């Protein structure tokens, strides 16, 4: 894993998006992500693509969403629903390469700096106020995921 931007805290504005949300086991989750990306890209040709993790239970089910940032709210259309990435202070880090190691690095940085995540334990898993991977590399033009430049973002507790 190559760190492109070291972990830091940034204030991010509220951003509207169009997304498709689903529940999937961790194993096979990225195949589901890729399928949902193709579905969204067929309808939206501009905007940053991201993968949002609403509830994480790596031994059980993951509540996830694939979205594309839009300039304004979108109308619901079948499986595609409007959403908002909430404003707030986020711990962020941008990397190329192995996502699991990058996530671990950012989580260790958050803990090491005594920061609190906007996250609550839930019977379904860890429920995040907002946690996502934003793909700075367009997945439609670069097929090799290990070459994608990805920004991790986890909203911090107020």
UniProtKB/TrEMBL annotation:
Gene3D superfamilies linked: Regulatory factor, effector binding domain (3.20.80.10)
Task: Give the SMART domains listed for this entry.
Answer: AraC_E_bind
Show where the AraC effector-binding domain sits. 5-157
Q: What is this protein called?
A: AraC effector-binding domain-containing protein
Species this chain originates from: Planomonospora venezuelensis
């Amino acid at each position: 894993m190559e760190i492109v931007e070291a972990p830091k805290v940034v204030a991010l504005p509220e951003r509207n998006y169009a997304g498709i949300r689903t529940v999937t086991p961790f194993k096979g989750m990225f195949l589901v992500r890729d399928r949902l990306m193709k579905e969204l890209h067929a309808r939206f040709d501009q905007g940053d693509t991201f993968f949002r993790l609403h509830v994480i239970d790596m031994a059980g089910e993951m509540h996830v969403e694939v979205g594309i940032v839009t300039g304004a709210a979108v109308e619901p259309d079948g499986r595609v629903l409007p959403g908002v990435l909430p404003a707030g202070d986020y711990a962020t880090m941008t990397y190329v390469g192995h996502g699991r190691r990058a996530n671990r690095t950012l989580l260790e940085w958050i803990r090491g700096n005594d920061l609190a995540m906007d996250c609550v334990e839930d019977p379904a898993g860890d429920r995040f106020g907002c946690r996502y991977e934003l793909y700075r590399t367009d997945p439609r033009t670069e097929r090799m995921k290990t070459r994608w430049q990805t920004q991790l973002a986890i909203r911090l507790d107020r």
